[in-house]
Amino acid sequence: MPHLLTRVPLLGLLLAGIALAGCSMDKPGSTPTPPTPTPTASPGAKSKYKMAGIGFQNDQFFKIIEFGMKDAAKKNEVDLLQGNSGGALDKEISMIDTYIGQKVDAIVIAPYNQKASVAALKRANDSGIKIVTYDSFIEADFPVSNIKSDQVALGKATGEEAVKYIQEKMGGKAKVAIISYLALLPEPAGQRTKGFEDEIKKLPGVEIVARQDAWMAEKAVGVVEGILTAHPDVNLIWGANEGGTVGAVTAVRNAGKAGKIAVFGTDISDQMAGFLLADDNILQAVTGQKPFEIGSQALETAVKALKNEPVEKQVRLPGVLFTRRQPDEVKKYQAYLKSLTQ
Known about the structure:
single chain, alpha/beta, Rossmann fold, 2 domains, 7-stranded mixed β-sheet, 6-stranded mixed β-sheet, 11 helices, elongated
């Protein structure tokens, strides 16, 4: 199977960010499903290592991370076992204990919680298993590396694009509403928001008139509709994640204010790509993460650690900007998504 990057050069590393809208997550407290092996080594070849890859939820973002892990596993003759905690701590703990019993060489994981995930992973580490965390992290020093997106850069890239739009289309002035998810994940949400705000605040004619949390699309629609009622002069909205952005686009469309209110956002998905290509001219730009690269680098880092090769303790990946001004790149992204299901 050819490397995905050779098929879509620019977009092979991209996909949805923390796509909290429309996720098919397992419910917390559900019965843990035993992890199943994903054959990754060449037929007849003996794997050098056995590793476990644990995702956090069953959305597009983590599925693409799995593709990245599988690709790196094939290249490094790794027998990869893949599972997903479904956003449930008890399931994560059960999976980690199962992998300890199976004596894997490394666990590559998006941990459920910075503190609550520490104990089980420490048991794994104490049994000689290398730990690599990705997307999120734990408050402990024993993981050999942590790999995730540069959250400030995600907000900054969209902020820079918004500044251009405000200067070119709005005479340098804008009334801005921010839809974030600080109550859910304070650190990444705060970093994304800072990256965006620091850019738009460079324009003296910009005023942030509303800030609210709404990370699920359905809730975000109502929140944005309320903002538009309370602040009818709002003419630009930024969503810190996919759910907030989708909700903002939908609310603007429902209010009949397409062409009057511009929406910018964070994360990329097939739905977001469709918004960027829509004739309504509402969504202007989003910055997506690089889940394929997160997955492949996380697994390759575990391999290096097992070989006692030096690894970076912290790896932060920049995002990639998608804009209405460059529809061909958006269409390439859609083609890439389609290729993954064929």
